Amino acid sequence: MTRKIDLPDIVPIFPLPGALLLPRARLPLHLFEPRYLAMLEDALKTPERLIGMIQPNRVPGRSGPGLHTIGCAGRITQFSETEDGRYMITLAGVSRFRLVEEVEGFTPYRRARVKWTGFERDQGGEETDTRFDREAFLATLAQYFEAQDLQTDWDSLKEADDELLINSLSMLLGFEPEDKQALLEAPSLSTRRETLMTLIEFEMRGGDGEGMMQ
């Protein structure tokens, strides 16, 4: 059962291209830059222990490190220090958020004021995909893995629940950052699965762009 937590108006944010965190999923991270070590230390002092993962958004003609408007906050559930001073942490996805504005301050890392409205479902129970044709999906996935020379534990994939299967593949497969953002912003598990399938089929065609969803 998912435990709801109080969501603050301001969260530390970690802009990381291509990194995708989804609600109820887990994302391992290595932290080594001093600013992010400071972010970790400060986050651990709060009751929520949240870090907001968000992707940079490079807009042509605009200066400065822009950000996408939607990210996902994760709760620090594990952390350990390595011998060389890095930290290995695990974030458990809590909820997506909409960025309102960045907050100026004296912290070396970035912070943002966010809104959680519109993502109430994220703190609920596991989603299901009633239209999911698992057999057809896995057949296409097998072709994709063969084409990409990827290996996986097929027994675990076949036994995984709908949400775990779709979200894990969305997070782990090496899509472009903008494609990862589309997967993050999908309003439902069914929509995310459809987007994931489109991306897989696009890659299998060699990225020729024919038939891509608009």
TrEMBL record:
Source organism (scientific name): Roseovarius aquimarinus
PANTHER family reported in the protein's UniProt record: ATP-DEPENDENT PROTEASE LA (LON) DOMAIN PROTEIN
InterPro entries: Lon_prtase_N, Lon_prtase_N_sf, PUA-like_sf
Record-linked PROSITE patterns: LON_N
Pfam family, one: LON_substr_bdg
Protein name: LON peptidase substrate-binding domain-containing protein
Domain Lon N-terminal residue range list: 11-204
